[in-house]
Amino acid sequence: MATGLGGTRFARRLGAAWVLIVLLAIPVDVAAQSRSITPLFPLGEQPPVPPAPIPNVPAAPAPIAPEAALPPPIVSPPPRPAPAVAPPTQAAPIVPAGQIALALSARFGRDPPAITGGLLWRVYSEQPEANGIFRLVREERSASPVLLLPPGGYIVHATFGLASSVKRVHLRSETVREVFEIPAGGARFEGRVGDVRVPVGQIHFDVFKGSQFELGEKRAIAENVASGDVVLLPEGTYHVVSNYGAGNSVMRSDLRIQPGKLTDTSIVHRAAKITLKLVGDEGGEALANTAWSVLTPGGDVIKESIGAFPVVILAEGDYVAIARNEGRVYNRDFKVESGVDREVEVLAR
What does the DSSP assignment read for 286-312? Predict the structure, then answer.
């Protein structure tokens, strides 16, 4: 039994050895057995080798050739000066078909300069209407207007203050230029008492044609002219009446107007401002509701008013103040000296 079992064991061991030798002699592809891999590249080609990881080291700057170390700086060319712009010129008006341009201007006579303001132009039809009135065609207030009008005849009237000029013009086929000669000047007035100028609003002026010494009745050509205002007048002689206040302070003066010139006239008044008071005692309170009359010594009434403190501007001289209050009449003589403004008290006694 023992021998048989041993032989059997020996046979089994010998069979296992042969099996092991056979297995070792056969090549085995372990990877192919583990999984199936589809090649990404055709057979016979090697896959690219992945690049090695780049270490995080700052790259050294590339060397710079000595001859081109730095590029030259870029210099911008200086800006070109802006081209000079010619001042705008007044474009000639475009004249439509069937119209003709009429260019108008005025001057202070033949030699003085042109008039640059204060002009009023009126253009009338040459032929009057059935009622005898000339029809107004155009009106313009600029100094040198250019009017576009149909061909024909016209009457042009230029006004400069109180001076004027009239011309008859004919428009045919080309631009017509007309220069009007208006020999005129200006006058400006002010009033004074001594060396003190009279405030604006307390004085006004009336202007008359001709000298104050000429005979005949004269009508004012400009009235209530304020101090400092300019009146435009034709060349010639005039006289001005200056009215200071509402009393009797009135002065006259002659003046000569020259073309293109402004004439300043200062008129001196010999007057004063008087305040009237009716009082019970000297320096007392003024009585209200008092009627006043100021008379010359000859009895001419200069001023009448009602109130407790009437103010009257009077030329220097002698006067009588009459006060009426509650049916009683009081009076006092007083004297006015030029430039001396004061109060005049009338005692109610």
Answer: BPSS-EEEEE-TT--EEEEEESSS-EE
